[in-house]
Design brief:
Bound molecules: 5'-deoxyadenosine
Number of strands: 9
Largest sheet: 6 strands, parallel
Order of helices and strands: HHHEEHEHEHEHHEHEHHHEHE
Distance between the termini: 31 Å
Structural class: alpha/beta
Strand order of the largest sheet: 2-3-4-5-6-7
């Protein structure tokens, strides 16, 4: 450690102390930090996560149960306009089988994730949630099925869903409109997030690192938005281009940028459940391990049937066999242990809340 701290280190100290730096100062941190500053950030981020979660890394079994989607987000491989996407929908039985297999393996959280597929009506999803909960009352269910109305969210919560992931994608309005067609709105997405929190879900927001047109100011807005929403979970991974989308060929987000954001988010929201995402594991072979060492404390291996895994292709080269999959929890365990952390197969609820 140098005798004199850099300006970035002082900003990192402020975040560590629970203060929110001014926008300009945050922008400077994001744009001007050195490798040494980043190491300093990661060290403090680990300290914070270890104070709250010890060495525990929570695992969630991810069930990607439909890739039909009514939306047409420019970055996403399962957008409705992608005629090359091979569409699938798991049957109720297939979904239950995934959860049963996951349960036998030791998973106690299931994440039901899908495109915005109106085939899964309020009632259909209620039945699925209730049946999983009946069979596995000791498990948490996380939903990630996009923007729906209040009554849907409430009914699913009353059926037993515990958590909900809905990334806000970007908190800057003009940027939101560069990533999405005019029929989608940032205001509505934010409204959904506040509804989910009000209903009682452990709620997750998030955004991509390095998405097309993103500026440092956008990221500052994202951080300020997260600070005001105070979510229980934040999903952040690098943007990775997908060949059948309007953003084919656009630059991907980088490992370094994503890691740095994970560290900042950990300091800003000490209790947050923060996954080292599949996208992070896709841009670098040791991406997820590095994510854990930058402040992340969750991993989400894939429980979907092997036959559909290549079809949930949000972005190119998504890893979907081998060590990220739930079929190889021992591999995953080994990789987590190599970082000095320990894999924990409990429900893994959030352990506190930013006041
Ligand atoms: N690269 C990285 N992440 C993506 N997502 C969608 N498309 C991509 C992409 N091309 C993310 C979005 C979405 C989540 C399910 O996956 O942030 O909320």
């Amino acid at each position: 450690m140098p005798e004199v701290k850099t300006g970035c280190m002082l900003t990192i100290d402020r975040l560590y102390a629970g203060q929110m730096p001014e926008r300009e100062e945050l922008k400077k941190l994001l744009t001007c930090h050195t490798d040494e500053d980043a190491e300093y950030l990661f060290r403090l981020a680990r300290q914070v996560r270890e104070r709250i979660y010890g060495k525990d890394v929570y695992v969630r079994g991810l069930v990607e149960f439909t890739n039909y989607c009514r939306n047409n987000c420019y970055y996403c491989g399962i957008r409705r306009g992608n005629g090359n996407a091979c569409r699938y929908r798991l049957s109720d039985e297939e979904i239950y089988n995934c959860c049963d297999e996951g349960y036998r393996t030791g998973f106690r959280t299931f994440v039901l994730q899908g495109g915005e597929d109106v085939y899964f009506t309020r009632e259909r999803l209620c039945i699925i949630i209730e049946n999983i909960k009946k069979k596995h009352p000791d498990c948490a269910i996380t939903l990630s099925v996009g923007e729906r109305d209040y009554k849907d969210y409430l009914a699913w919560y009353e059926s037993g869903a515990d958590r909900y992931l809905l990334r806000h994608e970007t908190a800057a309005g003009w940027h939101y409109n560069k990533l999405h067609p005019a029929e989608m709105s940032l205001a509505h997405r934010k409204e959904c997030l506040f509804m989910l929190k009000e209903i009682g879900y452990q709620t997750g927001a998030g955004f991509m690192a390095g998405s097309p047109f993103q500026t440092p100011e956008c990221i500052v807005e994202d951080l300020y938005f997260l600070r005001s929403l105070r979510p229980h979970m934040v999903g952040t991974g690098p943007f990775i281009s997908q060949k059948d989308t309007p953003f084919a060929g656009k630059d991907n987000g980088t490992l370094e940028q994503t890691l740095f954001l994970l560290g900042v988010i950990r300091l800003m929201l000490p209790y947050v459940l923060l996954p080292a995402t599949t996208a992070l594991g896709t841009i670098a072979p040791d991406g997820r391990e590095r994510g854990l060492l930058a402040g992340a404390n969750v991993v989400m291996p894939n429980l979907s049937p092997v036959s559909v895994r290549d079809k949930y292709s949000l972005y190119d080269n998504k890893i979907y066999t081998g060590e990220e999959s739930a079929q190889c929890v021992e591999c995953l365990q080994r990789r987590i242990e190599q970082t000095g952390y320990r894999m924990v197969m409990g429900r893994g609820d959030v352990l506190g809340y930013l006041s």
